[in-house]
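Example 521.
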Amino acid sequence: MVLIPSLLRSRSIVLLFLILFTSLPLSAQRPLGERAVKSKIDHEVTHASQSVTGRECRDHVAWLADDARGGRLAGTLGAIDSANYIERFFMNQSLKPGGLNGNWRQSFIIPGRTGQRGPLETSNLLRLKVSEEALRSVDLKYASEFLPHADSPDSILSGDCVFTFGDLIASDPRGRDPLKDRIVILPVPEALSRKDLGDFCEQITSRGSTGLILVGEGAVPADLQRPDSWTLGSGDRLPIPVVRVFATGCNKLWKISGRPERSWIFQSTDDGPLPMGRPRIDLEIRREGRDLSQGSNVLARFMGSDPQLRSEFVVIGAHYDHVGRGMIDGLSRGGKGEIHNGADDNASGVAAMLEIAEAYALLSKKPKRSILFVAFDAEELGLHGSSAFVASSGYDHEQLHGMINLDMIGRNDLQSVMVGKRSSDVSLGIHLARSAKALGMTLEEEGMEEFLDRSDQAPFLRAGIPSVFFFGGLHDDYHMPQDDLESVRPEKISNVARLAFLTSWFLANEAESVSSEPTSN
Ligand SMILES: [Zn+2]
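Predicted structure in complex with zinc ion:
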C-alpha cells in the first residue's frame, strides 16, 4: 500500500479505529439483491475455496519476501523475477494470458523515471557456437572481451550472423535479405559516434536484423575501469541489442568463423553483406535494475461459461512490487539501505491471488463471467500499474464487472478483515456479507474511506467500476525492513483469499449488479 506521510502522524487514530471496530459486524445490509443470494453455495465452490491453505500461501510469501528479491522495487531484478514467478504460476494453472494479443504482460512507463537504468550485471553472456546443436561453444568474458552498449535494450537472443563492412547493399537483390533475422557483425576501425551508431541500428533493424556486434579498434572502450560508462548512455534506447567485442574476444570469433577478419572484409567489400555459416550466437544482456522506468503488470484469464457474460471480467488484483532497499525518499519509514522484504506488503496479497487462481483452476463448473487476475507493478511508486491497466489494458471499462484488490492481508486478527468499498455498490456488499457469513469471518468497514485512494482499487473506482479493497490493517512494521515472513500469519492470508474467492464467484455469477444512485463517494 502506498505510504502517505501524513498518515504516519494519524496512525494512532487509525489503530484506534481498528480497535474500536474490530468486533463490529458489517453495517446491516438490507437484502436488496435477493436473487443474488437465493441459492446455497455450490458444494464444488466450497470445496475449491478450501483448496486455499495457509501453508501454500506461506510458501509464496517466503519466495517473494526472500532477501534474494531485494525488496522488489519496480524495475529491479527482484521485481522482474517476481513477475516471472507469478507468470509461471498462472501458466501452471492452465490459465490463459490476460493481456492484449495473447500477452501475459502489460508494459508501461513509470512516470518520472525515464532513462533511469541499473548497472550492468556481470552475468551478461555472449556465447559463440559452431552450430545450434554443437557441443562446442565458447563464452566471451564479460567486460574484458565484450560489453553491451550502455543504450542497449536488455535481451535474450540467439541467432546466426551476417558480416558487413558497412555497405549494406546485397549483391542479389532478388534473394532473401541477408540481414533479415541475423545478428550483424560490423568492424569499426574508428570510434563510432552515438548518432552514427543509432542511424546504423535503425537501418539494419528496418531490414530485420536482430542485433549488432561491433568489432575492431573503434570498439575498444576508452575507460575499461568503468565498463558501464564506456559510452555514456544517452537515455535513448537503441532499437536492438548492441555489443562490442574486444581483442581476444575477436580472436575467438574469427577462429570459430573459420576465416580471419581480413578475409571477411575483402569479400564483403565486393559482395556486400555475407551470411556467416558460423558462429551461431547466444546473447544475454541483463541489468541489475534494467530499465527502471519500465513497469510490467502480469495478467491471466480464467474464461467464464456464459456465452454472453464471459466477455465481462471480475478483476482480482494484488501488487507485487515493494520499496526495495528503502532508498527512495518517501517510500520507507526507516532502515535506509536495508532490504524491505514486504512480506505483508504485498507478498501476502499476491499469495492470495495465486491461490485464488488455483482454486478457479480446480473447478469443473465455471463461473458465468470470466475472471482476470492482475499482478500490478509500481504500486508503491504511485499506483502506476493499476492506473496503466485502467487506462490502456485493452479492456473496455464496461467489460470490467467488478474489482477485488488484495493488499496487506497477512497481519492482525485471523477471522476479521477490513473492507473498503463504496456504499453505493450494493450488490457487492451483499456478496461480501454472504461470503463472510459462510466462512465465519467479520468484515470491518469503518474508517476505510481514507484507504480507498491508497491502493490499486483507486483507479478502478475512479472509472466507476465496483471495487473492494481487502486490507488486514496497519502495523508497526508497515514500510519498514521488519515486514518479514516471520510476522505474517499464513492463516489470515488463506482466510482472506477464501473470502475474496467466494465474493468473486458471486460477482461473476450474478444476473446484474445492483447499485444505488451515484453518491458522494
Ligand atoms: Zn505499501
